[in-house]
Every structure is written in C-alpha cells, then in structure tokens.
Amino acid sequence: MLRSFVMSQRSSSPTVAPRIEDLIARRDLSAVFQPIVDFDDGAILGYEGLIRGPAGTPLETPYALFARAEAEGSVIALERAAARTCIEAFAQLAYEGKLFLNFSAGAIRQLADDRDGTFVMLRNMGVDAERIVIELTEQSAIPDVTSFLPAISILRMAGAQFALDDYGTANASMNLWVRLQPDVVKIDRFFIHDIACDPLKFEAVKAMQHFAAASGARLVAEGIEKEADLIVVRDMGIGCGQGYFFGKPHARPPRAVADDAREALRAGHIAVFPEATRAVSASPSGGMASAKMIMHAPALPRHATNNDVLDLFNRMPNLHAVAVVEQNEPVALINRRAFMDRYALPYHRELFGKRPCMLFANASPVVIEKSMTVEDMAKLLASDDQRYLADGFVITDQGRYVGLGTGESLVRAVTEVRIEAARYANPLTFLPGNIPISSHIGRLLGNDSGFYACYVDLNHFKPFNDQYGYWQGDEVLKFAAHVLAEVCDPTRDFLGHVGGDDFLILFQSEDWRERAQRAIHVFNEGAQRFYAPADRLAGGIHGEDRRGNPTFFGFVTMAIGCVHVEPQTGKQLHSSEDIASVAALAKRRAKSEASGLVLIGFEESEALLRGRTAAAVD
C-alpha cells in the first residue's frame, strides 16, 4: 500500500525543468518579434526581438527563463544566447528595418570587449551592425557609469545604436539619460497605459518629451493598447510606438501595420489632452499669493526698547507695523497706530521709553507661512480672528521671519490668485477655463480639424439664482456640467466652463447633434427637481426682469448655439476668440428657439463676424 502511494506520488510529480545551460546547448530557445511603428507614415521601422523557452514548459516565458538563469548564475550567457537566437531568426525572416535587442550592463560590457567577434557574428548571420539597436534593460544597475561609457562608444563606432529601455522605472533614470545620451528612449508602458485619461501620466511624458527634444533622443511609447492612448501620444508629437495595438510578439510578425491601426494613426480628430479636462484645484501653492503681498521690513530683537520702536517708525513713516524676533523667529508684532497713539499720551515716553518693547507688543500675532495654500489664506479671511485687518501679519519661511503683510494685501493676493486659477479651471465645476479653451481651439485650427463649437447657456438662471440663492444656483450649474460631460466623448469632445452659466463644447464627434439634443432634454427634465413643489406645480417662479418689472419665469432650461468650423476654412475665422464670439451669437438665437438648439454654417459665421467687427468700429 505504501509502495503504491509513493509510486503514484512520483508519477504525478512535475518534470524537473532543465538547466539554462542545457537549453542553450540544445538550442532550445526561440524568438518572437514585436513591431515598432513610425507614426508619421505608419511604417514599421523595426522589431524588438524577445526570447521564449520551450513551449508548454514552465520556462516558456522570459520571466521564468531569466529567474532560473539568475538562480543558476547564467544571466549573461542567456542574454547572449537570446540575442544570437533573435538575430538568426530575424535574418531568416529577411525583414526590413532595425532589430532591437535587450542586454544588461554586464552583457553590453562583454559585447564591447569582444566587439570583433560580435560583429563578425552579425555579418555571418546576415544582419549589419547598423541595423542593431542595443537596449539597456531596466534591471541593470550600473555602479560606475564612467567606466561603462567606453563600452557604449565602442558599439556606436561599430554602427549600432543605443537605447534606454523602460524609461521611468527601476534603474532607467534621468541620470543615465544625461550621462549615456541614448539614441532612443523607450517610455515604460506604465506611463502610456491610460494616458488619455490620466493628467499626471500626461505631464510626466510631456516632461520626457521636452528633455528628448533637448538631448536629441528619439522617443518610443511602449505599451500602446488602446486607440485613445495612441491618439494622445501621436498628438503630443512622440514619433514612434510599440504595443498590442500594433501587434503582439510573434515568430512571424506583420510586415506592415494592420488597417485598423493605420486608420487610427490617420484619424482626423485631435486628442483632448487630459491636462485640459482634469479637476485643477483652484487653490494652488500659496507661493504666488505670498509673493504678491510680502513687504520686506526690518525687525527688532526682543531686547529692543520702546524708544527703538519709535525711532524705527519715525525713520520709516510707511511702515504699518514692526515684528519682534528672537533668533530670527517672530515672537510678537507691534502695530504702528496703536503704538503711536500710546506715545501721544502725556509722559508716556518718559515712563516707558526705556522699557522693553514687548510691553506693548501683541505676543500672539497672525503668522502666515510662505508656503501656505490659498485655501488656507481664504479660511483666515473668513475666520473670527480678524486681527490681521488692523495689525497686519507676519510672513515666515519655514518658521523664519521674511517680512510683513497687511489685511488689504491678503485680500488682494487671494483674489488675484483665484481669478488667475479660474482662467485655467472653474473653481465650481473644475472644468477647463478660458485659457485651456483657447488653447484647444488653437490646436484644432492648427491641425485643420473640422469641429462644432457649441456655446451653452441656461435660460432663466438669474431669476432662479435670485430667488433660491447662490448655493442652490451652484447646484444647478454643477448639474449642467455633469449633464454636458455625460454627453461628451472625452477622447474627442472638449468641454469648458467659460464662467457663470456659460459653457463651451468643441465637438469632434460625428453625432454631435444627437449629443447636444440629449443634453438639452436631460437637463430640462432634471432641472425641475431644484424647484420647490409649489413652483413645480406652477411651472416656474415669479420675479422681476432686468428693468424691475414683475415677470413670471419658466423653469431653467438649456440653450445651445453651434457654429460649424469646417476643415481648411476654420483659420479664416482668425482666432479662438472669434469662434467663441460667433458661437455666443448663435446661442442668443437658440435661447428663443423652442428646441433650444441652433446651428449656423461657416458663411453665416463670417457674416456675423464681419457685422460684429463693423459694429465695434462704429
């Protein structure tokens, strides 16, 4: 019984995987290739060669192969065997283009040390060195980059190019980019996957793009799997890409890009960059605000006397206060008016002039750290502690005194920063503001892309706002933003918030009209829930028109005026401001239409624009 159990266990146990050196000796490795595509013409510029172990075994995947090689101490031997296998298979395929091969730093050193043998092997296999791109894998830590540079130079002198693989992860760092000066940089798939909807990934790749332009490196976006990500990467100006969207690794990969991928590359619409639609906070770092309100002013030490304070105020008549510091940290604030009023009293100077200045100082002044956010500054404005209005406040940098501020300068700085922020993103809906709107229109015009500029306005919003209050009015605006966002295709249609109850949609979707009609219907139905039951039954509210006359106003409804900007003709409308202005004129017509939707064509747009310009001149 025991014998049969043991025998059954042996028979069911998995076969022990062969050693890596045995696989190499038996030439039991195979190559697959993944295309790398040039976005400009849709041609395949080359292939990345990848290794596979015996099919159907635990060592079939590259990860399993190299994990076993790491355990056996034969990683470099496996890399060289993998390269030889890929080169042989690529030569047999007789494909055009470059061959990208992965190597660790140690393997690259060996290639350079044996450069004559390496390139003799290439010639014998039918692949010229000029067609080879050597990729430094991300797992390769290089303790001494200086000593590694000659190896790269030797390979380049032989005609090969050098690439930094999986940039942005592991050991692929900015330091290596600067010092190794690669010909090609392959952006890791982490940054490319979902870049169409991730503003942080977009910003990271944009930074890589700027540095690539400065260094002369060619960028390849890895991991492209979706059309939306491809369009964003294409429109950013990155020239090449690789990923499942173009083809999975295969022993006989395609010689040309598939039709669907080629159509995507030629897509007429331009991407809506995620930077333009992200929820930008209306409270950026307070550095900008503090810079606007800081007043550089001298401070006095704790042991200073009241006579010292008086002398300082007499020397600097515009100084509203003086800070008292100890080891450069503020401990008190002396307000000029309060101090001088005391000194005007009889015998005050004689009695208190030589006494410590802390006697009449505010020992708990309002202190604003230079890095404080604008939102925190705004909370200070609304707090019960209003001492800053009279005394002003102290500004510090990491706790150390840097200057003074006044209540007036605080209000002005917060207001200016918020107005500036609202130009980029509306603080209520977080939709893009006027600057991103103008930027996107400029991109559309610059690419000769046809689109529909739709100006959205809410009828009867002001009387609703007057009766129900700003809080409820804000809820209606947020509901309108939600409805409009729901009908937009985020990869094609740009939605911005001009301000108040005005929105602008730049449609590239072909079914734009159905989308606009759906927005009007959904909003008009949903907006009624913001009214009190009695007003819903009455069909609206009583109020006053702009002239103060009693008027009955129906429910808040949506109106959309559209202008069709056709390809090759949009530039004749001169600018983004002109297009927005003509769309706003169309919106005025839509407000009086029962359907709430009006479209005007290009010729009428020009006429309206000429009429508006003539009126302005008159």
Please outline the helices and strands.
Layout (H helix, E strand, L loop, with lengths): L1 H11 L7 H6 L4 E9 L5 E9 L9 H11 L2 H19 L4 E6 L1 H9 L1 H11 L6 E5 L8 H13 L3 E7 L6 H7 L3 E4 L1 H4 L6 H17 L2 E4 L5 H10 L3 E3 L16 H7 L8 H4 L9 H7 L5 E3 L4 H10 L5 E6 L2 E7 H8 L4 H5 L14 E3 L4 H9 L4 H5 L1 E5 L2 E6 L1 H18 L9 H13 L4 E9 L1 H8 L1 H18 L6 E6 L2 E6 L4 H15 L6 H6 L1 E5 L5 E5 L2 E9 L10 H15 L6 E4 L1 H16 L1
Helix pairs in contact: 5-7, 14-20, 18-20, 22-23, 23-24, 26-27
Quick summary:
This is Diguanylate cyclase/phosphodiesterase. By secondary structure, the chain is α/β, with parallel strands linked by helices.
Describe this structure as you would to a colleague:
Helices cover 46% and strands 20% of the residues. The chain has 618 residues and is an alpha/beta fold. It has three domains: 2-267, EAL domain (TIM Barrel, Alpha-Beta Barrel), CATH 3.20.20.450; 287-417, CBS-domain (Roll); 429-617, Reverse transcriptase/Diguanylate cyclase domain (Alpha-Beta Plaits), CATH 3.30.70.270. The protein has an eight-stranded mixed beta barrel with strand order 1-2-3-4-5-6-7-8, surrounded by five helices. Strand 1 and strand 2 form a beta hairpin. This is Diguanylate cyclase/phosphodiesterase. Residues 449-604 form the GGDEF domain.
